[in-house]
Amino acid sequence: MTHPLMFDDADPVLARVRAIALALPEAAEKITHGRPTFFTVKTFAFYGGSPRGEVGDRHDQAVLFHPDPADEPALRQDPRIWEPSYLWPHGWLAIDLDDDTDWYEIAELLDASYRASAPRRLVKLLDAR
């Protein structure tokens, strides 16, 4: 079954997320379940999703990420952070993006998520930068 696209390819917020995610070593993008998905060997981020338990509540301008375990407790206390449907049991979190987004923070979240999923070889490449 093909999922409908749930994003606008011309979305300037998506363009900023792409720039950050695809700057990571050997990162690539594919469409999964109608949404941009960033990966190396494993997925490290999704663009857009729905909160856990809120059927039909789409957050189209959001980043879904796997947090650094050391940062996870603090992130869970942040009112901007929410648990995404289907991924929350696996430790994923999400944050909405808007005009007030701190893009350095988003880069840090994507970096941590990348490090959690990328092969050691790619993490070493990232550290060598």
From TrEMBL:
<protein>
    <submittedName>
        <fullName>Phosphoribosylglycinamide formyltransferase</fullName>
    </submittedName>
</protein>
<keyword id="KW-0808">Transferase</keyword>
<dbReference type="Pfam" id="PF04237">
    <property type="entry name" value="YjbR"/>
</dbReference>
<dbReference type="GO" id="GO:0016740">
    <property type="term" value="F:transferase activity"/>
</dbReference>
<dbReference type="InterPro" id="IPR038056">
    <property type="entry name" value="YjbR-like_sf"/>
</dbReference>
<dbReference type="InterPro" id="IPR058532">
    <property type="entry name" value="YjbR/MT2646/Rv2570-like"/>
</dbReference>
